[in-house]
Specification:
With about 210 residues, this protein is α+β, with helices and mostly antiparallel strands. It has seven helices and five strands. α1 packs across α2 and α2 packs antiparallel against α4. The chain is globular and about 45 Å long.
Length: about 210
């Protein structure tokens, strides 16, 4: 049995930020014992992007275990992307609503939220972690789990992030499934509250009413 339910998000360049805020929103809804359905989280995703860019700007000297820094990572990105000329240029580009996020932004998000972020791919029908992500601590209780398709290029469907929500936490349904469920519930409720015409006729006869 698969331990995750994959929940799609829009492929608009902000899929990483939508996936993170979507995961957090699902956690909140589960905690409040509400059924999950997809909703507009554009504002939340935009706020997270701004927080990530600000964190990167203020933590260029942040050091990984291998002693490389955020600045080293960004400079490596600049060397591989002729469109980027400087660190400020990278941060300006990342501020765009449709700019794709990667490992650098995952590191920032993890430190901002104080949560592990683990990213999985689909390999031979099973979800497998290939090292993408960032670990704050060894505890897996508060992991944020995401899916990454790892397709080459940045075209349609390329490097797309989606939510991977643990099935152990809750039964996850889509908006369409939610609407269908609500529609069935209303019909059942309507039938239950509908007056029984046979009983009404019998009552009228016994009381002598016409």
């Amino acid at each position: 049995m698969n331990r995750f339910t994959k929940v799609n998000v829009a492929g608009d360049g902000a899929c990483y930020f939508h996936s993170v805020v979507g995961f957090l929103d699902m956690e909140r809804l589960v905690k409040d014992k509400k059924t999950y359905y997809k909703k507009d989280l554009d504002k939340e995703a935009s706020k997270l992007r701004k927080r990530v860019v600000t964190w990167l700007r203020n933590n260029l000297n942040f050091q990984y275990e291998n002693e490389l820094t955020i600045q080293d990572d960004i400079e490596d990105e600049i060397r591989n992307n002729p469109k980027l000329q400087s660190i400020n240029g990278y941060l300006r580009d990342m501020s765009r609503p449709s700019a794709y996020a990667g490992q650098i932004e995952i590191t920032a998000t993890s430190n901002i939220l104080k949560r592990n972020i683990r990213v999985f791919i689909k390999k031979q029908g099973k979800y497998s972690n290939v090292g993408l992500g960032y670990e704050i601590n060894k505890s897996k209780d508060k992991d944020i789990t995401l899916f990454h398709n790892m397709k080459p290029g940045k075209g349609k469907g390329g490097h797309h992030f989606e939510i991977l929500f643990p099935t152990s936490k809750a039964q996850v349904v889509t908006r369409a499934q939610y609407d269908k469920f609500k529609s069935k519930s209303k019909k059942k409720s309507s039938k239950k509250n509908r007056p029984d015409t046979k009983k009404r006729k019998m009552t009228r006869r016994r009381s002598g009413r016409p």
